[in-house]
Design brief:
Radius of gyration: 19 Å
Number of domains: 1
CATH topology: Structural Genomics Hypothetical 15.5 Kd Protein In mrcA-pckA Intergenic Region, Chain A
Largest sheet: 3 strands, antiparallel
Strand order of the largest sheet: 2-1-3
Organism: Blastocystis sp. subtype 1 (strain ATCC 50177 / NandII)
Distance between the termini: 64 Å
Strand content: 5-15%
Protein name: 40S ribosomal protein S9
InterPro entries: Ribosomal_uS4, Ribosomal_uS4_CS, Ribosomal_uS4_euk/arc, S4_RNA-bd, S4_RNA-bd_sf
CATH class: Alpha Beta
Oligomer: single chain
Order of helices and strands: HHHHEEEH
Structural class: mainly alpha
GO molecular function: rRNA binding; structural constituent of ribosome
Number of helices: 5
Family: Belongs to the universal ribosomal protein uS4 family.
Length: 108
């Protein structure tokens, strides 16, 4: 429970465990963390980014929005290396636009 950040190290008592709320659990989900860190525009966008494997925690690409983030792993949430958002291969539209621009430059 302390590794997940649900209770503090000093507060390891039965009363503090019984006082846990669903909002504390929901705040530890990867989906919520991605939105709170500003990697996604909305909570729904965060869910889609995670499902489409654009988000990694440390070196591990995670595709489950319900992944419970540990306190130590919180600072390692970022875009995956092979994701277009993280500087990987450009997306379909970006590739098409760059191809059109190079063809237009060659014609001139």
């Amino acid at each position: 429970m302390t590794r997940l950040g649900l209770i503090s190290e000093e507060d390891k008592k039965l009363d503090s465990i019984l006082e846990l709320s669903t909002s504390k659990l929901m705040d530890r989900r990867l989906q919520t963390k991605v939105f709170k860190f500003g990697l996604a525009k909305s909570i729904h966008h965060a869910r889609k980014l995670i499902q489409q494997r654009h988000i990694r925690v440390g070196q591990q690409v995670v595709n489950s929005p319900s992944f419970m983030v540990h306190v130590d792993s919180e600072k390692h949430i970022q875009f995956a290396e092979n994701s277009p958002y993280g500087g990987g291969r450009p997306g379909r539209v970006a590739r098409r636009n760059s191809k059109n621009h190079t063809e237009a430059a060659e014609e001139e």
